[in-house]
From TrEMBL:
GO terms for cellular component: plasma membrane. This is BMP family ABC transporter substrate-binding protein. Residues 49-264 form the ABC transporter substrate-binding protein PnrA-like domain. InterPro entries: ABC-Purine-Binding, Peripla_BP_I, PnrA-like, TAT_signal. The keyword Signal applies. Residues 1-31 form the signal peptide. Keywords: Signal. It comes from the Bacteria. The keyword Transmembrane helix does not apply.
Length: 336
């Protein structure tokens, strides 16, 4: 009897141990399946372009898919060092922007062939592990231009950009083409502030344009909408929707959604299938990578005929009947 009880007791204990192990298994598996992802940004998290990448990664973190670390305000001179630290630290995917540090970023990618890199870049993918992306949101930029052309009373539109690089140039050209479609008489004044984040400088540039008669301003950078609000003029937003902060100023915005690109990269890294490719197309409307923001407070202020034209053009873009031209050349002012 004693031996039998002891044997039964051992079985019971073993069963308990197995049950406990099985109960813990899902959490252990979940912890092990989380990808380690790091991001490096040269500007603050709230800067509009970076905020969209950060938002998509934070969403993946909230879903429990990734462990996410990020550094903001990293200087160009320090970028390579931070990249190497994250790669050495075992991060499986590193996200960021390489526009001003192309050579250094690509060198790091070569030194860490087993790490996946997804960086904003005007250059081409670099095999085997350096993928590039850009905010190809020229389609909603065109639509927002159509609205701007219909809203200007002076036929003068001011445009303030960061740097004249392809990802900015193509959006400005698309916006200008859209404005010309609804208003062939419109003229443009264009200024680049040579900074990705300098709201006071963007504001001063906008004031100068307003003084010359611009009554609609294209806010590629922060600071433009503040100036427009102060002077009672209108603004068109870019990348994010700030109408909640400027309900009487921001008419429309071309919105960028980075989630399709980030979610694709995470899936491929998990599957061990990440390769060097161009993620640019995943920012386009057909992939839900961009959209024209709802008119919101301006829903009844934009002329009905302009709204109808914009809706028709949007349908044509989604149906593949109309393609917004991609022009990466630096745009020029047309105002006399």
């Amino acid at each position: 009897m004693t031996t039998r009880r002891l044997f039964t007791g051992r079985l019971f204990c073993t069963s308990l141990a197995l049950s406990a192990a099985m109960a813990m298994a899902p959490s252990l598996a979940t912890a092990q399946s989380k990808l380690k992802v790091a991001a490096i940004y040269t500007v603050p998290f709230e800067q509009q372009w970076v905020s969209r990448i950060h938002k998509a990664l934070k969403a993946a973190e909230a879903r429990g898919e990734i462990e996410y670390k990020a550094s903001e305000n990293v200087s160009n001179a320090d970028y390579e060092r931070v990249m190497r630290e994250y790669a050495t630290g075992g991060n499986q995917l590193i996200v960021g922007e390489a526009f001003a540090v192309e050579a250094a970023a690509r060198k790091v990618a070569k030194d860490f062939p087993k790490t996946s890199f997804l960086l904003g870049s005007s250059g081409k993918p670099q095999a085997p592990n350096f993928s590039v992306f850009d905010n190809y949101i020229q389609e909603p930029a065109y639509l927002s231009g159509m609205i701007a052309g219909g809203m200007t009373k002076t036929n003068k539109i001011g445009m303030v950009g960061g740097f004249p690089i392809p990802e900015v140039n193509r959006l400005m050209h698309a916006f200008m083409a859209g404005a010309k479609e609804t208003n062939p008489k419109v003229e443009f004044t264009i200024t680049f502030i040579n900074s990705w984040f300098d709201p006071p400088k963007a504001k001063e540039a906008t004031f100068a344009m307003i003084d010359k008669g611009a009554d609609v301003l294209y806010a590629e950078r922060f600071g433009v909408s503040d100036a427009a609000k102060e002077k009672g003029k209108l603004a068109i937003g870019n990348v994010i929707n700030t109408q909640d902060k400027y309900p009487d100023t921001v008419v429309a915005s071309a919105i960028w959604h980075m989630e399709p690109s980030i979610d694709r990269a995470l899936k491929l890294v998990k599957e061990g299938k990440f390769t060097a490719e161009d993620y640019g197309p995943y920012s386009m409307m057909k992939h839900k990578g961009s959209e024209l923001a709802p008119l919101g407070t301006f829903e009844k202020k934009v002329p009905a005929d302009i709204v109808a034209k914009v809706k028709a053009k949007e349908a044509d873009i989604l149906a593949g009947k109309f393609t917004v031209k991609v022009d990466d050349n630096q745009p020029k002012s047309t105002a006399k």
